[in-house]
Design a protein that fits this description.
With 210 residues, the chain is of the alpha/beta class. Helices cover 55% and strands 11% of the residues. The protein contains 9 helices and 5 strands, in the order E-H-E-H-H-H-H-E-H-E-H-H-E-H. The protein has a 5-stranded parallel sheet with strand order 2-3-1-4-5, with helices on both faces.
Length: 210
């Protein structure tokens, strides 16, 4: 069983995907972490994440087993991720890695921005997880302040809105809800409530397939 989970920044898609993977005993890939890792690698090398040559080289050298999950969660890595993500050559390199991961016959949960539309268009179940801009900003602000980053609500909200626009307007694999994806708005849901709602969607899809 392949479960595709898409959605914008801080919508809760990662948490939903993690819970789904644990609940159904599937492996999981946070595809957004790949773009964050590539963007961070370019920054670490003193390059510009928008530079095609630098970004492609970082994507080709990416070691999925060596991604620093702490460092890639910074606001700088997030902005860099949105810049490398609009580069078709970078997406081509990372697309191959994601599809190899999804080809495991035991199944998987993948979350990102183009899983149900590009990476796994034939996924057994597709979810599009979203939340209001204000709520997503609040969540990410709490996360970043917990990491010791100094940033205010207005600045962060502008950054998230900018990333939304970049993700939705890029020519290659833009962010949008697949026609057959189930919408899950987590704005007013707790983590547990969002997980339960996701389980209900998947269980219904499994039942419908017999």
């Amino acid at each position: 069983m392949i479960i595709a989970v898409d959605g914008p920044t801080a919508s809760g898609k990662g948490t939903v995907a993690k819970n789904l993977a644990e609940h159904y005993g599937l492996k999981r890939l946070d595809t957004g972490s790949l773009y964050r890792a590539v963007g961070l690698a370019v920054l670490d090398a003193g390059g510009d994440p928008a530079d095609v040559k630098n970004a492609v080289a970082a994507a080709e050298a990416l070691d999925l087993s060596a991604i620093d999950e702490h460092r890639i969660r910074s606001s700088a890595a997030g902005l860099a991720a949105s810049k490398v993500a609009v580069i078709p050559e970078v997406r081509a390199v990372l697309r191959r890695a994601q599809q190899v991961f999804a080809s495991d016959p035991q199944g998987a949960v993948l979350d990102g921005r183009d899983i149900g539309t590009v990476i796994c268009p034939n996924a057994d179940v597709k979810l599009f997880v979203t939340a209001s801009l204000a709520e997503r900003t609040r969540r990410r602000l709490a996360e970043l302040r917990g990491r010791g980053e100094a940033i205010n609500f207005e600045e962060l909200q502008a950054q998230i809105a900018e990333r939304d626009e970049r993700d939705m307007s890029r020519k290659d694999s833009p962010l949008f809800q697949a026609p057959d994806a189930h919408l899950l708005d987590t704005t007013s849901l707790s983590i547990e409530a969002a997980a339960q709602a996701a389980y209900a969607i998947v269980d219904a899809a499994i039942a419908a397939r017999g």
